[in-house]
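Hi F.,

I've been meaning to write this up properly since the lab meeting, where we talked about keeping a consistent format for the predictions we share between groups. The idea is simple: the sequence comes first, exactly as it goes in, then the structure tokens exactly as they come out, then a line or two of notes. No screenshots and no reformatting. I'm using this chain as the first example so we have something concrete to point to.
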Amino acid sequence: MVIAGEGKASICYDCVRVLGQVVEEEAPAPAAKKFEPAKPLAPRDIYSNLDTYVVGQDKAKKVLSVAVYNHFKRIWNGHQRSASDVELQKTNILLVGPTGCGKTLLAETLARTLDVPFAVCDATSLTESGYVGEDVENILLRL
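Output, unedited:
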């Protein structure tokens, strides 16, 4: 079978197949990307960014800044496998307060500052799988 090109040019199917194999063999294999976590922002920088967008809530901003820094430091140190003997304990933060006090704004601003995925959902609409309502797994799809 002959494939017609522009003007008088043409090439047979076997030549196309052979040239395709040559290109595949000579093409360099894509280098695997190595995961390199970014160096964590200092708590002062995180606090400063939160302070730009959130008015008040100074204690919450300080606690979040230090906790997030420690979390990223744990990831960074785990990745580096340094000789440091410092091991940070796992911690959690629960933001509690009345409606409109800035819990979601703090979390959204923090996620935007650190360039990490963030999803907001209404837990009252969540149900067990198989029942009418939204499944818990759907929260992950928003990320």
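Notes:
The helical segments are 13-26, 43-53, 58-80, 103-114, 137-142.
The CA atoms of residues 49 and 113 lie 7 Å apart.

If this format works for you, I'll send the rest the same way.

G.
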